[in-house]
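During the first year of the project, the team set up a workflow for recording each protein of interest as an amino acid sequence followed immediately by a discrete structure-token representation. This format lets reviewers and collaborators read both layers of information side by side without switching files. As required by the reporting guidelines, we include two representative entries from the current panel. The first entry is reproduced here exactly as it appears in our internal archive.
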Amino acid sequence: MTAFLMVRAQVDAAAKKDFDRWYQDEHLPDALKAFKARSAWRGWSEVDSNVHYAVYEFDDLARARAIPGSEVIKPLIAELDRRWGDKVTRSREIVEVAQRIGG
């Protein structure tokens, strides 16, 4: 069953505009390619406007679980840390789809 790697980032308000542009133009496409994910999407929370979510879709749970701690994620983490330092804090979660109805 499909699984997702979800990345939640708390972004400093002063860095939000530049972070958004960088994530759109560089990070999301680079991560999609590096992870060999089926798809990726991202967005900003309506509850907390400084919270950004990125979601990567995988064919199965094993593929999603393989990403955190892997060699392919390390350069992406390093680049994000280098660029944004303490202006962005992140957490990651793996979710396996248990049920899907419609579309």
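The second entry, processed by the same pipeline in the following quarter, appears below.
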Amino acid sequence: MTLLWFCLIGIVAGWLAGQLMKGGGFGIVGDLVVGVLGALLGGYLFGLMGVGSSGLVGQLVVATIGAIVLLMVIRVVKRA
């Protein structure tokens, strides 16, 4: 059940990041994949900083920030 929630939060975070990063999205399916990967990245980055998240909203914020960071990195790599 936890994996299902993780995927759902990642999908929503990917959609949100795609909306916030105009011109940085990869279409709906690409943004959803980026959201799930961004959720992993966000959890890792926030863990390094010693910041935790609790509840649905906190997890969504962490996942969205991770997806935005991932979209920015992908954008920089695509330009190189």
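For the second entry, the following points were noted during internal review. The chain is about 80% helix and 0% strand. Residues 20 and 61 are 13 Å apart (CA to CA). Both points are flagged for discussion at the upcoming steering committee meeting.
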